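Colleagues,

For the teaching module next term, I've prepared a clean inverse folding example: a structure given as tokens, and then the sequence designed for it. I'd like students to try predicting residues themselves before seeing the answer, so please don't circulate the second half yet.
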């Protein structure tokens, strides 16, 4: 997952079974052969001017230079690179609840989400769904993941999606119903990732209670009294159920055949605990110390693309650029802005002076972290998930997107 400069990562992530099916997308298998010529190809270890051919949904040939084959699309020197792989996005939740307490019809929301991701160059997504609810208190929240997953999987089976969708279950440790909700999922549900989310006030992302207060009161319109009740309730839930929920979520990830991820690790001790559980990658470590501990433990570090673009974390945690400059950044996630993923990769390319290395953070490194060996690189025999990118100054512009050789954007 790393460059030679970064050193090797132990292979500790199980491979997922991700078969090609007519439903992903429905016409991908039957897409006619297509060649993109006169392109700047972003290969795993270098850039080259050449052409690439898709056949039957796979990359059939890659060639340096030479004349463009008859019938090829002349890319005019545009960049051609693998489709982006997104491991953690809240974008679907934004579509099903576009305003607080507004429940948007789910199929239109799913289709809009899918189309938006395709338009930004994302060809594989792990849709993050919360599992674990709180029913007590005045401002609790209910279960939704199983129903939405059923609707998502039905839309996929019907061939409605442009890109490849897997599930990412965000296991809320501080909840009342985590294990009951996880038990409703099975190995057939395309659950690729289970992340351990501990949002107990006073630690990890919310170790600064004033920062947490600002975030929560704006997001959920809490009063002072409601925020105090929220803090007390989460602390009590952690004390009563935290250890049981964490152990149960680790076991459920193994049952589902999913990769296990940590979330907001802050201290070396938390990273050591994550490593002991078999965590494959760390989502958004909050300190440089934690990122260094991840590197020592062979755990890949994922940071948010918005953090990199904005120049810092909105919650006051470590800046993604600081980790990138220190060689401690492996994977980028769009988090809450789908269009941030490609833009952040080009920002990294400028920082490192190395486009293939930067592109790897949004293509083959996340694919490897999720156990997907069939995508994320321009290589013969892999899925023809490919994007064509032009530049407007230092801003990448997506000009075309193919999923399994089928034009989807």
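(Answer key — instructors only)
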């Amino acid at each position: 997952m790393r460059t030679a400069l970064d050193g090797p990562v132990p292979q500790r992530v199980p491979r997922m079974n991700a078969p090609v099916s007519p439903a992903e997308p429905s016409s991908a298998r039957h897409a006619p052969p297509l060649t993109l010529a006169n392109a700047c190809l972003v290969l795993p270890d270098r850039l080259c001017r050449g052409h690439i051919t898709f056949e039957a949904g796979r990359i059939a040939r890659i060639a340096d230079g030479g004349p463009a084959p008859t019938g090829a699309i002349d890319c005019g020197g545009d960049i051609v690179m693998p489709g982006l792989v997104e491991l953690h996005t809240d974008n679907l939740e934004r579509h099903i609840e576009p305003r607080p307490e507004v429940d948007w019809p789910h199929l239109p929301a799913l289709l809009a989400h899918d189309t938006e991701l395709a338009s930004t160059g994302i060809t594989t997504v792990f849709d993050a769904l919360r599992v674990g609810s709180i029913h007590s208190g005045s401002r609790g929240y209910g279960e939704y993941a199983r129903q939405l997953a059923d609707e998502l999987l039905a839309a996929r089976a019907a061939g409605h999606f442009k890109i490849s969708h897997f599930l990412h279950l965000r296991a809320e440790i501080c909840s009342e119903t985590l294990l009951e909700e996880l038990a409703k999922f099975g190995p057939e549900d395309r659950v690729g990732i289970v992340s351990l989310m501990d949002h107990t006030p006073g630690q990890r992302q919310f170790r600064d209670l004033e920062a947490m207060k600002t975030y929560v009161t704006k997001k959920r319109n809490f009063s002072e009294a409601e925020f105090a009740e929220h803090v007390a309730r989460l602390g009590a839930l952690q004390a009563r159920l935290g250890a049981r929920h964490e152990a149960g979520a680790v076991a459920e990830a193994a049952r589902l055949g999913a990769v296990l991820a940590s979330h907001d690790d802050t201290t070396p001790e938390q990273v050591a605990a994550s490593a002991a559980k078999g965590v494959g990658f760390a989502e958004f470590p909050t300190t440089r110390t934690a990122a260094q501990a991840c590197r020592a433990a062979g755990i890949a570090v994922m940071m948010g693309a918005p953090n990199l673009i904005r120049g810092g974390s909105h919650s006051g945690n470590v800046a993604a650029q600081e980790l990138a400059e220190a060689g401690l950044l492996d994977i980028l996630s769009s988090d809450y802005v789908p269009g941030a993923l490609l833009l952040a990769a080009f920002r990294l390319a400028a920082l490192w002076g190395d486009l293939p290395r930067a592109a790897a953070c949004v293509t083959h490194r996340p694919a490897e972290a999720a156990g997907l060996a069939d995508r994320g690189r321009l290589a013969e025999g892999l899925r023809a998930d490919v994007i064509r990118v032009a530049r407007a100054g230092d801003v990448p512009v997506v000009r075309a997107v193919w999923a399994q050789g089928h034009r989807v954007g």
